[in-house]
Amino acid sequence: MDLPIQSVELDIPKPNLNDLRSDLDRFKEALHDAGYPADIKLPYEVLETFSNVLREQNWSCTTVIRNNEVTAILPKGTLPLGLAVDVGTTKVAAYLINMDDGSVLTRQGAMNPQVAYGEDVISRIHYANHTSGGAKILQSTLIDTLNRLVEEMCASTGNSPGSVVEAVIAGNTAMHHLVAGLPVKQLGFSPYVPAVNESLEVECARIGLKLASGAKVFLPPNIAGFVGADHVAMLLSTGAAESSKNVIALDIGTNTEISLVTKGQITCCSCASGPAFEGAHIKDGMRAAPGAVERVWIAGEDIRVRTIDDAKPVGICGSGILDAVAELLGAGALDSNGSFRPGHPLVRAVDGKREALLVPAGSSGSGQDITVTRKDINEIQLAKGAIRAGIDVLLEDAGLSADSIDEFIVAGAFGTYLDISSAIKIGMFPSLPLSRFQQVGNAAGAGAVQMLVSKRQREKAASLAVKLNYIELTTNKDFRDIFFRGLLFSIT
Amino acid sequence: MDLPIQSVELDIPKPNLNDLRSDLDRFKEALHDAGYPADIKLPYEVLETFSNVLREQNWSCTTVIRNNEVTAILPKGTLPLGLAVDVGTTKVAAYLINMDDGSVLTRQGAMNPQVAYGEDVISRIHYANHTSGGAKILQSTLIDTLNRLVEEMCASTGNSPGSVVEAVIAGNTAMHHLVAGLPVKQLGFSPYVPAVNESLEVECARIGLKLASGAKVFLPPNIAGFVGADHVAMLLSTGAAESSKNVIALDIGTNTEISLVTKGQITCCSCASGPAFEGAHIKDGMRAAPGAVERVWIAGEDIRVRTIDDAKPVGICGSGILDAVAELLGAGALDSNGSFRPGHPLVRAVDGKREALLVPAGSSGSGQDITVTRKDINEIQLAKGAIRAGIDVLLEDAGLSADSIDEFIVAGAFGTYLDISSAIKIGMFPSLPLSRFQQVGNAAGAGAVQMLVSKRQREKAASLAVKLNYIELTTNKDFRDIFFRGLLFSIT
Q1: For the domain bounded by A5-75, which CATH number is listed?
Q2: Does B20 contact A224 at a Cβ distance shorter than 8 Å?
C-alpha cells in the first residue's frame, strides 16, 4: 500500500493564560511531536473551521495528512474513507473505500443527471456554451448526484460524508472539464482541444463536493478532446498499458475510445459510436433494465429471445440489438449493405417498410410488436462502422494485421454484456479466436479505485498519459475510406 | 526592488488540426520558451477561465507570475497593479500601487462599514458569535467596501480592477480573521487566542475580493489576540524593529498597541483605550471632520479653539478633547483626580453638574454650547490611564526608567494630530524632550505598501512576529496598580 493519505491520533494542549499560542501553532507543534514536519500546511478550507472543530472535539482528534497538508480533523477514532467515481456520459458509478486498507466498503450507480441537458457530450457542450450559466448547471446537477450517492453509501455503512477525505473522479474529457469547472467552450469547436490534459488536484469544497473540509479530488490526466481520464484509468486497471503483447483495449460508450498497445507503444483514438448500444435512437430500444431483450437466437424461422430478469419483453437493449443484427445476417435476412432481403421469411413489410419481428404483440409486455427496422440496422451499422474503422486505423498505423492481436480487451457496461461472436459476425470486431477476448466490465471505475488508494498508480497514469499517441480520426486521410468500408457487413 | 511578482509578454501558438496540445500544455511551453520553469502551476482560479481568456486575447497576453504560479493573464501591455490596505477598526485606508516600480498611484480612505455592527472589536466578535452568519456578514460588508475602493481608485487612474494582481491587507487580529474568513469565536473568550498567527496567503477570489482571477492576498502575521498584523506593519515601516536605541512605538486607536524595543529585544502589549480619541463616548465628541475643535488654548479665563477647515465649531474631536483636558489641568480648573474645582472661573455648574464651556452657543455652528463634562474627563482618564499603564508595564518589565527612552514613535490617524505636549501634560506620555517624539501617521498602511512590493519586507515581518514578546496585561500582577496610578493626572 502506498496510500496518498496518512492519519494520526492527536491530543493537543489546550490554550490557557500561561499558554497563549495561536491554535495553529499548538496544533502544528502536536503534529511535530507526533513525527510530522514542522512546516506542515493547513489549507484554507481547513483553517476556516479548525479552531471550532478542535474545541468541539475537546482538543483530541484524528488528523488526516496528505503530502505536506492537513486535509481533515476528525473525531478521534474515525476511519478515513475515500470516494472513487467513474462519470460516464450516461451513467455514474461510485465506490466508497476504506482508506486504511484500500477495501471497497460499498458501491452504487446512478444515471448521469446531465442526460436531461443532452444525451451526448457534444449536445452538453452546446448547452454549456449557449445557455447562460449552462456549464455551472451541468456541474452542479452532477455534483448533487455525487453528494447524494456519497450520503447513501455512507448511511448504508454507518459512516459520515465528513469522514471521506480523498476522492478520484475519472471521466471523459468533457465530463472531466465540467466536473472540475474548467472551460468547455474550446471543446465544442474544431480542433476540439482540452483546456487541461495533465492530472489535477482540486479542493472538493470548490466544486461543491461535500466531503471532509480539506478533502481533495484527484482528476487523472486526459489524452485529447475525446479521449479522457476514463480511458487512462481503464488502461491502468486492465494492465493493458504494461503488456508486452499486441493488445487492443476499448471502452464502448457513446464515444468509444480505443488503444492499440504494441512494442511498448500505445496509440489511441476516439470514435463517435453513438448511443445505439445504450438503446437510444433504436425504435424499440431501451436501456439494460428488466424486460429488455438482451440475447437473440435465430434457427431457421424460429426467433428466440432472452430478457433481463426473464421479465416479459418490453424493448431491446444494446446487446440484444447487436445479437439481432448478427442473427438476421447469419439467417440471410440482411444483405451486406444492411438492407432486408425481400421475401425472406423473417422479413415483413409494414407500410411499405421492411422490418423483422422479434417479439409479437401477444408475447410482449407492452402489448405491441417488438421489431427491428431498417433504421435500427442503420444505427448499428454507423456504430459498428465507427468502432471497426477506429480499430483498423490503429492497426494500419502500426503496420499490423488484425490477426496479430494477442489480446482484445472490451471494457464498459455494454462491453460486459455484448456477445463477442455477434460483434464479430457483424464485423464490429475482427474475427479472432474468442479466447483472445476479455470482457472486463467497468475497468475505468476499477482504475479510479486503484488511483484513489495508490500514489504509484497516479504516477503511472501520468506517465501513461504522456506516452499515449493520439490519432485524430477526423483529419486522418484514410479514415473516410476505412469508415465506409466498415459500414458494410461483409468484412470480418 | 524584490517584487513578489514578475510579468512577461507571451505570444502563444494557436491550436490547429496539426497541433492538438491542450491549452495548458501550449501555454506552459510558451512560458518555458520565455525562460520560466517547465513545472509552473496555474491555480484553480486561473484554470477556470484561462481557455476563454487566451482566445479573447487572441493568444497574445501579459502573464503575471508569482513564485511558481501564474496569477493573471492580462491583455498585452497591461500594467500590473497592487492593492495595499490598512483595515482599522474604525477606518480603512487603501493604496493602489504600480507593481512595475512600486510607486503609489493613488490612495483612498473609507469608514469600516463593520462599525454598523459594533464600534469596537469585542462587540463585533460578539456579533459574529451570536448572530447566524454574523462573521460572513462582517466579512462581506468589509470586502464590498474594499471592492468599491479598488473600483474607484482604478477608475480615477484609468485602470481595471482585473489588472490588480496582488494585495496586502494589514489589520488587527480580529480584522485579520474576519477578512480572511478564519474562526473568531475563540477571540471572544479568555484566553483570547488567535486561530492563526503566521502570515497567510489566500486567493482573493475566495474572500470575495474582485481583482485579477488568480490574485493572492498576503496577510502579515499576528502577535496575539489583541496585537495584530497592523502593529507588525507599523514596526516594519518605522524601522523601530531594527533600532539599536531604546524605542517606544505605539499605534493609538480603539485598542492601543505598544512595543518597547531595547537591546535587540521587542516586547509588546495591547491596552483597551476605548473610542474617546475618535470622538465617541464624549458628550460633544465627533470624528475629525470640518467644524471639529482640534486645538484648545487657555490663557487666564480666555479659551481659544481652532477647528478643522476653520469651520464654525460643531463638536470636539480627539486631539481637541485631549488639548482641552491638558489646558484645564494647567489652568487649575481640574484637580489630579479629574474633578472640576468648584468656584474656578472656567468651571460652571449646570443642573448641579460641573463642566467647562469651550464654545458658547452664540459662536457655535450648532447653536448650542460646546462643553467638556466630568464624564468626558473620565473617558480621557480611562484612555490615557490604559495607554500610560501599558507603557509603564513595558518599561518595568525591561527594567528601564521612562527617561531612558531615546525615541517615542506615535502612529495612527489620531496620533498624527494629537499635541504631544498636551499628551505629556495629562500624563498619557512620559515627560520627555519633544525632540524624542515622532508622529508618523498611518505607519501600518505604509508597512502594508512595503510588504506589497517587497518579498524581503514580508520575510522581515515574519521574523519580527516570531521575535516579539507579548505581555498579556489582564494577567500581569502589577497592571491593576499601575493602571489606577495612570488614571490620575498627577503623574508625568
Answers
A1: 3.10.20.880
A2: yes
